């Protein structure tokens, strides 16, 4: 409360704040996808799931047992 309120014409997001949000968002996105990939490729935790290859993970939506157009 020691600082006065911002001016009404000040931008909510300036260039520096936008850059920081993009860096943090990229970091969180890469970490999330990385953990997902690690879980399916390498995490041997018992009966939770079966491990798949990188090729199977990349082509997950092209399972040959599903008829085309069933989604």
What distinguishing features does this structure have?
single chain; 71 residues; mainly alpha; 45% helix
Can you characterise this structure?
- The protein is elongated.
- The longest helix has 27 residues, at 15-41.
- The chain is built from 2 helices and no strands.
- 45% of the residues lie in helices and 0% in strands.
- The mean pLDDT is 84.
- The chain has a domain at 15-62.
- The chain has helices at residues 15-41, 54-58.
- It has 71 residues and is an all-alpha fold.
Q: Pairing-aware structural class of the strands and helices?
A: mainly alpha
- Coarse shape: elongated
Question: What is the string of SSEs from the N terminus onward?
Answer: HH
- Beta percentage is under 5%
* Largest sheet descriptor: none
| Whole-angstrom Rg | 22 Å
Give helix % range: 40-55%
Distance between the termini: 55 Å
Low-confidence stretches: none
Short description:
This protein is an all-alpha fold. It is built from 2 helices and no strands. It has helices at 15-41, 54-58.
Itemize the secondary structure elements and their pairings.
Elements: H1 15-41, H2 54-58
């Amino acid at each position: 409360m020691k600082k006065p309120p911002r001016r009404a014409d000040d931008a909510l997001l300036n260039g520096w704040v936008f850059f920081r949000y993009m860096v943090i968002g990229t970091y969180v996105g890469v970490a999330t996808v990385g953990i997902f990939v690690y879980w399916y490729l390498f995490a041997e935790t018992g009966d939770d799931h079966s491990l798949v290859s990188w090729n199977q993970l990349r082509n997950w939506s092209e399972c040959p047992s599903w008829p085309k157009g069933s989604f």
